[in-house]
Every structure is written in C-alpha cells, then in structure tokens.
Amino acid sequence: MTWLGAVEGYYGPPLAQEDRLDLVGWLGAHGFNAYAYAPKDDPFHRQRWREPYPSDRQAQFRDLLSAGADAGVDVALVVSPGLDWSAGDEERLTAKLESFAALGASVLGVAFDDVPPGGAELGKAHAGGVAFAAERLGPDVRWVTCPTDYATDRPTEYLRAYHAALPEGADAMWTGPSIVSPRVSSDMARALSAELGRPLLFAENYPVNDGAMSSVLHLGPYRGRDPGLPGATSGAFFNFMSLARASRVGLAAGARFWLDPSVDPEAAWREAVAEEPGLEPLARASRTWAGDPAEDPDVAAWVGAALEGDAGPLRAYLVGGCRRDLDPALAAEVAPWLDQWDAESMAMQFALMLLESPPDARASAAFALAEVWARARASRYQLFGVRWAHYPVTGRDGEDLVPLAEGLMTGENMTDRLASAALERAAHAT
Predict the structure, then answer these.
(1) Which terminus has fewer CB within 10 Å in the chain: N or C?
(2) What gap in Å lies between CA 17 and CA 38, rounded to an integer?
(3) Percent of the chain at pLDDT above 90?
(4) Confidence of residue 65 (pLDDT cuts 50, 70, 90)
C-alpha cells in the first residue's frame, strides 16, 4: 500500500490553518503518510485556478509542508482546473504546479472531479494536461490525480483514454461503484484496475458530510469495505468533514482497517471514540450513514427495554448528558449536534415520564411530550438515526451517472419510536 492519506476536499469553507496543522500532526501519529490540500471552495484551487496564490497563502503552504515533514506526512498540493479546462491550458496548469514545487512540495495533484462529463477526447485532454506538467517538472515529483469519472463499477470511454494518457506512476482516484459507496469489493477494484492498466487509488468519501448529507454527523464505525481492498489498490485517501476534530473518529477507525484489514470494526470504532474524552454519548447517537444505516445497538436495546418497563439504562444514558469532559474545541465544532442531542434527550425523557405516569397525570404529560418532541423534530440536525438525508449513492446507466434510491434515507429515529409508542399507549390506557 503506497498511500494512506486524508484529503481536505469537501464543499464548504476550508479549514483554519491552525486546525489544518494540528490535523497533519495527528495524522502522522495515527499511521497516515499523506495529506492532500484540495478544498473545493478555495477560489485559487478551483474557480480561479489559473491565478497564483497570494504571498500570505504561499507562506501558509510552506508552514503546512514543514508540519508534514515533521509528522512524516507528505503534503500534496492540488489544483482543480476542470470547470473551464480548454486546449492550451497545459502551460497555465504547469505554471501553477511549478509554483507549488518551488515551495518545496514533492507530491502534486490535479483533480478533474465534479465537472461536466465527456468521452474519450475529454479523458485524453485531462490526462494530457497532467502528462505535460509531469514532463516539465521531472522525475522527482509524485502525482495523485482524480478523473471526472471517478465513481464507477466499469471502465468508461473517458477512463480508458484518461488512463492511457496518464504518466506512468501517477495515481488516479476512484471512489468505488458510487460517489458515496455503501460497499466496495476487492474483486471490483482488481477487475477495474486490470482493464485500465494500473492499480486504483481508493478515494474514500467518509467521514465527509457536505451537501445534502450535511445534517448527519459521521462518528460511527467504518464498515462496508472488503478486507482485500487494501491489497487490491495503491492505498486510500479519506475525504473528511469540515469539522477537523470530529473527523478524527472516522479517520482513526478507517486507518485501523487499512493498516490491518482483519480488525473488528466495532472494536476499532470504540478505540477511536475513546481517544476523545467525553465523546461517547454523542458518538453513540451519530453512528448512522448510508453505508451503515443501523442505530447504536446498545441505545436501541435500552429503548426497547424502556418500552418493556425497564427504563433504567436509557434514563441513565440520557441524564448523563453529552457534554461532560468534552474538549471545548471539539464541543464548539459539533455544537449544533450537542444542542440537538439535548433536544432529543428531553423528548425521550418526557416519553419515559408519560410511560410511567398515573392515569390522572397522563393528559398533561402527553401534551408536554408532544411539545418537546415537535421541537426535536423541527431541527435539520440528525441524531439517534436519520429522519432525512440524501447521499450521493450512484450507479451507471451506460456512460451516464445516475442516482440510486439507496441514497435517500428517510424514516423515524429512536426518539420518534419511543415518543409515538408512549403517546399511543397513553391514548389507549384504561
């Protein structure tokens, strides 16, 4: 495995430099060997890619490269020219990449993701730009790239042309059969690599939560990956959330798998959560994502026990709260979800009160529960299961990328089930 990296590649404000430097140091201590700077909303990375970075930003890159060297993490500086790529842009692309190399970067990247698709001619043009720059910059630079067709279970005409024109040794990213792939097999990776003539670099869209999945906090176990995947690829880059500290749970759990595919996902997750004091209550409520829609089994069991008359374990969990011992910086990052945890907890505790209310108090308890439950349901932030989120789970219809129904997550969460059961029992009590 050549790469085990993290990529700042989400949509949204780029990280603060202090958070980025802290994360690079943390990555080096957790087995990662690479970090890619590629935030979509950095204008000089994407929208205004032809323009050089201002001097203050270049100074930040020098500091980032230095921090990476100290941590044993190669920092890849990436440019994304695909929105308006045209013939003749090879010189402009090379000039931008040469400016990165002048700062000391020995790993460079070119990303053509999330731009209008095309066929073989576009694939050849995109990879040709990389080849032009690679020839100019010489053999001491290593390359990571992302083609436009990065989510597929079969080679497209674009990809065939792209890989044919890409320089030898340059890595091309692949997210699996989907943009967010609930499951990825090593057989698929090997078959696609064989057809394209080189190993693929797995681009893991986890724990990232941008777009229509931004209301879900991804703090759960790392699942859905074939143990043979590390051996079938050139490694992995994890696209993380704009929440640098909260992303450490998913990154740590993912690293444990890629470094030892035999690891138990649940055990790896518990170890990752334990590294962040006070995070367990929130992490238990934040396990769900498209690749692992199940809720926390312990909390779900406590809800079930409460409906059978034993509310003790659930009440103890809820009364304990979600903020005790939590690092202030982490608490500030996840503040909306902490507030939502409180709202869901209040609704569940009112449901327990209603279940235990004597007949003469059931009406007032029911009215109170309905009020606090409505408040919890009104928020966009998702905890204790997912009420609504849309993930970019995709497939291929010929050459076309199409959305799949699996990406839409709707339904009741644990609060809804407990509250509705309590209200129904109160209405039918004699």
Answers:
(1) C
(2) 14
(3) 98
(4) very high
The predicted structure's pLDDT at residue 411 = 94
Judged on CB neighbours under 10 Å (0-12, 13-18, 19+), 137 is middle
What is the rounded distance in angstroms from the CA atom of residue 164 to the CA atom of residue 162?
Answer: 5
Smallest Cα–Cα separation from 15: which of 276, 248, 240?
240
Whole-number percent of the chain with pLDDT over 70: 100
What is the rounded distance in angstroms from the CA atom of residue 70 to the CA atom of residue 89? 35
Residues 6+ apart with CB under 8 A from 149: 117, 123, 156, 158, 159, 162, 401
* Residues ≥6 apart with Cβ < 8 Å to 430: none
What CA–CA distance (Å, rounded) separates 3 from 237? 7
First-to-last C-alpha distance (Å) of the chain: 65
d(CA 238, CA 65): 19
Tell me the whole-structure pTM to 2 decimals: 0.96
Buried b (16+ CB within 10 A) or exposed e, 25-38: ebbbebebbbbbbb
Domain 297-428 has CATH 1.20.58: yes
Average pLDDT (66-90) is: 96
Angle between helices 247-259 and 17-29 in degrees, nearest 10: 30
Furthest-apart CA atoms within the chain: distance in Å: 83
Beta bridge partners, 79, equal 110
Decide if pLDDT at 152 tops 60.
yes
- CATH, domain 3-274, list 3.30.450.20, 3.30.420.150, 3.20.20.80, 3.10.20.30: 3.20.20.80
SS3 257: helix
Other Cβ atoms less than 10 A from the Cβ of 334: the count is 23
Q: Is the pLDDT of residue 429 over 80?
A: no
Tokens of 405: 């129904």
- DSSP E strand stretches across 28-170: 34-37, 74-79, 107-111, 142-146
Strands 201-204 and 171-174, by their bridges, are: parallel
Q: Where are the domains of the chain?
A: 3-274, 297-428
Joined together, the tokens standing for residue 67 give 């921090």
Band the pLDDT of 430: cuts 50, 70, 90: low
